From TrEMBL:
It comes from Glomus cerebriforme. Keywords: ATP-binding, Nucleotide-binding. The keyword ATP-binding applies. This is Actin-like ATPase domain-containing protein. GO terms for molecular function: ATP binding; ATP-dependent protein folding chaperone. PANTHER family: ALPHA KINASE/ELONGATION FACTOR 2 KINASE, HEAT SHOCK 70 KDA PROTEIN 12A. Gene3D superfamilies: 3.30.420.40, Actin, Chain A, domain 4. SUPFAM superfamilies: Actin-like ATPase domain. The keyword Nucleotide-binding applies.
C-alpha cells in the first residue's frame, strides 16, 4: 500500500479481499500489508548484496512513480535485515508532472481554453495524446543533445477534436503549420527540468537529514527508468554517495519486494514511528495547568506519552508503563489510545491529537493499593498494536488491540 494510506484504507482493502472470496476468514493472516517504500527497500537488498554493501551501511531508496516520489533511508543489519533510520519524505513530483509540463507547452500553442475543453469533453483523446507523448518523447529522452532527434507531433491525428476548440490567433498559427508541432531538444528538457529539480531537492534534504552518511542511492519506480532523470541524479550526487544504482526493471521493484516480504516477514525489523502515542491519565491539577480543565475533584486529564514519534521500534517490540489509580474508590481506568504528529502533547483535546481507540479496564473493589496498580504493555506488531494491562495485585489480565498506522 502507498505509504500515506491510513488504517481505514487497510480495513477497506481487507474487506474487499474478503468479499471477493480471496479470504476464508476476514482477519486471515494470509493477507498482510506492507508499505511501498518498505517493499522497495526489501527488493533492493538483492542489488545491495551484489554491490557488497557491508552491515551497518546506510542507503536511500527513491521511488519515482507517476504521481509521487517517496524517499526513505535505511540501514543494512546483520542477517540481511533492514531498519528504517529516517522518517520518510515525499512529494508530488513523479513522471506525470512531465506530462503536465507537456500540456502547458501545448497550451502555449493552441490556447489554454482549448486544452480545458478537450479535458472536460474528450478526456480519452487527451489521454491518448499524453500516452503518445510518453511513448515517443518522454521515454526516449536522454538529455544528451547529440542523441536527440527532432520530433513532430501531428495534433490533427493525435487529438482531432482539438481543432474545433482552438480559436483566434492560436488557430491561425496552427493552420499555418498544418497542426504539426515541432518539439526541439530544449522544449523537452524544459518539461523535465522543473520536475527533476524538485526530486533532486528532496534527495538533497534527505541526505542532509542523515549528515550525508549514506553510501548508496537506489532508484525504483517507473519514472526511474528515465535516462535523463538518472543522468541528472548521477551528475548531482555521484560525489556525495558512492553508488547510484537502478535495479533491473525498477517499475516492478515494489511488487517483487512485497512478495519477498510475504515469504520472509521478519526482514523489516525496525521501523520509525510516524506518530507520538499516548494515553489519558488523571493527575493532580497544578498551578500552571489551565483552570478550565480542573475537575471538581481537583484532578485534571492529561496526555501521557507512551512512545515518541521518530523512535525506532522493532517488530514486536514492547513498551511498558506502570499506572496507579488515583484513589481507592476508582472502579475503572480509562486507557484510550491517542496519537499526535507532534513530539508530545499536554492534553488529549489539543490540536492534532487523534483518538485511535477507546479502552478501559475494571478495577476491583479492594482497599489494597496493589490492586490498583496496572502494568501496561504495548507491542508494536506488523499491522497492529497489541495492548495488555496486568493488574499487579489481582493478576487479572486485560487485552485489546489497535490498528497500527506506520
Ligand atoms: N522509460 C521511462 N522513461 C520515463 N518515464 C517512464 C518510463 N517508464 C515509465 N515511466 C513513467 O513512470 C510513471 C509510472 O511509474 P510507476 O508505475 O512507478 O507509478 P505508480 O506506482 O503507478 O505511481 P505512484 O507511485 O505515484 O502512485 C509514469 O509517469 C510513466 O510515464
Ligand atoms: Mg508507485
Amino acid at each position: 500500500i502507498p505509504a500515506e494510506f491510513d488504517d481505514n484504507a487497510i480495513v477497506i482493502i481487507r474487506e474487499c479481499a474478503f468479499k471477493a472470496g480471496l479470504l476464508n476468514d476476514r482477519y486471515s493472516q494470509n493477507l498482510r500489508f506492507i508499505t511501498e517504500p518498505e517493499a522497495a527497500a526489501i527488493h533492493c537488498m538483492k542489488s545491495l548484496k551484489e554491490h557488497n554493501l557491508s552491515v551497518g551501511a546506510k542507503f536511500m531508496v527513491v521511488d519515482c512513480g507517476g504521481g509521487t516520489v517517496d524517499l526513505t533511508i535505511r540501514q543494512l543489519l546483520e542477517g540481511e535485515k533492514l531498519s528504517e533510520i529516517t522518517e520518510r519524505s515525499g512529494d508530488y513530483c513523479g513522471g506525470s508532472f512531465v506530462d503536465q509540463e507537456f500540456l502547458k507547452f501545448l497550451e502555449r500553442k493552441v490556447g489554454s481554453s482549448a486544452i480545458s475543453f478537450v479535458r472536460e469533453n474528450h478526456y480519452c483523446q487527451l489521454q491518448y495524446m499524453i500516452q503518445e507523448f510518453c511513448r515517443k518523447v518522454k521515454m526516449k529522452f536522454t538529455g544528451v543533445q547529440s542523441e536527440f532527434e527532432n520530433i513532430e507531433l501531428e495534433l490533427d491525428e493525435l487529438c482531432p477534436v482539438l481543432e474545433q476548440y482552438c480559436k483566434g490567433e492560436y488557430r491561425d498559427n496552427m493552420e499555418e503549420v498544418d497542426w504539426t508541432i515541432n518539439l526541439k531538444f530544449d522544449d523537452v528538457k524544459k518539461m523535465f527540468d522543473p520536475v527533476i529539480e524538485r526530486i533532486t531537492r528532496l534527495i538533497d534534504s534527505q541526505l542532509r537529514s542523515c549528515d550525508n552518511d549514506c553510501s548508496t542511492l537506489l532508484l525504483v519506480g517507473g519514472f526511474s527508468e528515465s535516462k535523463y532523470l538518472q543522468l541528472k541524479i548521477k551528475e548531482k550526487f555521484s560525489k556525495k554517495v558512492q553508488l547510484i544504482s537502478i535495479p533491473p526493471q525498477p517499475v516492478t521493484a515494489i511488487i517483487k519486494g512485497a512478495v519477498q516480504y510475504g515469504l520472509r516477514e521478519e526482514i523489516v525489523s525496525t521501523r520509525v514511528l510516524k506518530w507520538t502515542y499516548g494515553t489519558d491519565i488523571a493527575r493532580k491539577w497544578q498551578q500552571n495547568d489551565p483552570i478550565d480543565k480542573r475537575r471538581d475533584d481537583g484532578l485534571i486529564i492529561a496526555f501521557e506519552r507512551l512512545a515518541k514519534r521518530g523512535t525506532q521500534i522493532a517488530v514486536d517490540e514492547k513498551v511498558h508503563r506502570a499506572f496507579l489509580a488515583c484513589d481507592k474508590t476508582q472502579r475503572k481506568m480509562g486507557l484510550d489510545l491517542y496519537v499526535t504528529p507532534q513530539d508530545d502533547a499536554k492534553f488529549c483535546d489539543e490540536n492534532g491529537v487523534k483518538t485511535i481507540g477507546k479502552w478501559s479496564i475494571e478495577l476491583p473493589d479492594s482497599l489494597n493499593d496493589n490492586d490498583r496498580s496496572i502494568l501496561y504493555t504495548m507491542v508494536f506488531g506488523n499491522v497492529e498494536i497489541q495492548v495488555t494491562a496486568l493488574n499487579s495485585g489481582t493478576k487479572e489480565l486485560f487485552k485489546t488491540s489497535f490498528d497500527l498506522d506506520m
